[in-house]
Amino acid sequence: MDLARPSELRLIRHAESAGNVARAEALAAGAQAIEIEQRDCDVPLSPLGERQAAALGRWWARHLVPFDVVLASPYVRARETTALAQAAAGWKVPVVVDERLREKEFGTLDRLTRAGIEARFPEQAAQRHRLGKFYYRPPGGESWTDVILRLRSVFAELCRDYAGRRVAIVAHQVIVLSFRYVLEGLDEKALLAIDRGADVANCSVTTYLADAARGGELTLESYNVVAPLEEAGETVTSRPDLPIARG
């Protein structure tokens, strides 16, 4: 009996945001905090990010059949990426905004660099070192396992509502990595090894296709593909939104 799955699932990280730029500037200056006025959910794309999103859309139009649906994080940077890419592709695909696809929440450590965490919350820095990034939950924030829990329900609904359909998800680095954990049955060690290997690039595409030989199970076709930006001659960026997102 065939499994109920989308026929294809493409996971896309949002284009470069103003927060990515502010984080890089804070690290270069050795600052303890990232200076940006907006709430994390309201941070827009950078000018480069807007060009990246348009390049993504042109790549969609050249290489892909229009999706049946796009699921997007409610964060501005993800919704802007979706809108600019669709406009550039000339597509009018339905977009469903789902709060379960939001960025991992960092609680009291939000907007702090590693230096800032160690200086202001040394006990939390020590606890994170002891537990490891997979299970550590900052005060008021989430662990990776918390994110994975919400994505399990997203995937169950994809199988129920979009079986046999072409689906794209536009979200964040941790969302892309956590979906790999869910879809491939990874464990902590395997997931963190992928994370250490390279950041998920802005506007990169990770593709799963249904494998008929395995009853329609979604199988990884490609990971962290940056061809949309390379073909357009745009700068490839892979800055994490917040420093704690990396090991």
Question: How do you describe this structure in short?
Answer:
By secondary structure, this protein is an alpha/beta fold. The chain contains nine helices and six strands.
Question: What are the SSEs and their pairings?
Answer:
Blueprint: E1 8-13, H1 18-29, H2 47-63, E2 69-72, H3 76-89, E3 95-97, H4 114-120, H5 122-131, H6 144-161, E4 166-171, H7 173-184, H8 188-197, E5 205-211, E6 217-225, H9 227-232
Parallel strand pairs: 1-4, 2-3, 2-4
Antiparallel strand pairs: 1-5, 5-6
Helix pairs in contact: 2-3, 4-5, 6-7, 7-8
- What is the overall number of helices? 9
Please give the largest β-sheet: 6 strands, mixed
Report the mean per-residue pLDDT as an integer: 94
Calculate Rg over CA atoms: 18 Å
Helix content: 40-55%
Give me the count of strands: 6
What is the element string, with H for helices and E for strands? EHHEHEHHHEHHEEH
Spatial sequence of strands, sheet with the most strands: 3-2-4-1-5-6
Secondary structure category:
alpha/beta
- Low-pLDDT stretches are 243-247
Q: Please tell me what the overall shape is.
A: globular
Q: How does this model look, in words?
A:
Strands 3-2-4-1-5-6 form a 6-stranded mixed sheet. Helices cover 43% and strands 14% of the residues. The radius of gyration is 18 Å and the shape is globular. 40% of the residues are buried. The chain contains 9 helices and 6 strands. With 247 residues, the chain is of the alpha/beta class. α4 crosses α5, α6 crosses α7 and α7 (173-184) crosses α8.
